[in-house]
């Protein structure tokens, strides 16, 4: 059980960090270079990763308290 929770927390941390990186840095770079399609894709992927991290963390917390 602990290995599943530690793996889930690692994955959640990666999703949060990469989502924030996409939103904060990549979107700004694409905006400065006027690359609208890439900016749109980076924004969508960033928000998707943040949403997935919330979903996965809620599943992990539910799994933890169900035990």
Q: Could you explain how this protein is built, in words?
A:
Helices cover 93% and strands 0% of the residues. The chain is mostly helical. It has one domain (2-66). The longest helix has 31 residues, at 2-32. It starts with a helix and ends with a helix. The model has no long low-confidence stretch (mean pLDDT 91).
List the topology elements.
Blueprint: H1 2-32, H2 36-66
Helix pairs in contact: 1-2
Précis, in short:
Keywords: Membrane, Transmembrane, Transmembrane helix. With 67 residues, the chain is mainly α. It has helices at residues 2-32, 36-66.
N-end to C-end Cα span: 9 Å
Low-confidence stretches: none
Share in helix: over 70%
Q: What is the count of β-strands?
A: 0
Tell me the structural class.
mainly alpha
Number of domains: 1
The H-and-E topology, N to C, reads as: HH
**What's the story with the biggest beta sheet?**
none
Provide the residue-averaged pLDDT: 91
Shape: elongated
- The radius of gyration over CA amounts to 15 Å
Report strand %.
Answer: under 5%
Helical run tally: 2
Transmembrane segments: 6-25, 45-66
InterPro entries: CLC_0170-like (IPR049971)
Keywords: Membrane, Transmembrane, Transmembrane helix
Features:
single chain; about 70 residues; about 95% helix; elongated
């Amino acid at each position: 059980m602990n290995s599943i929770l530690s793996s889930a927390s690692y994955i959640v941390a990666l999703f949060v960090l990469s989502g924030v990186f996409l939103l904060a840095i990549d979107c700004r770079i694409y905006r400065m270079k006027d690359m609208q399609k890439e900016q749109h894709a980076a924004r969508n992927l960033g928000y998707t990763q943040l949403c997935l991290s919330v979903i996965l963390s809620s599943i992990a917390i539910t799994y933890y308290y169900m035990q």
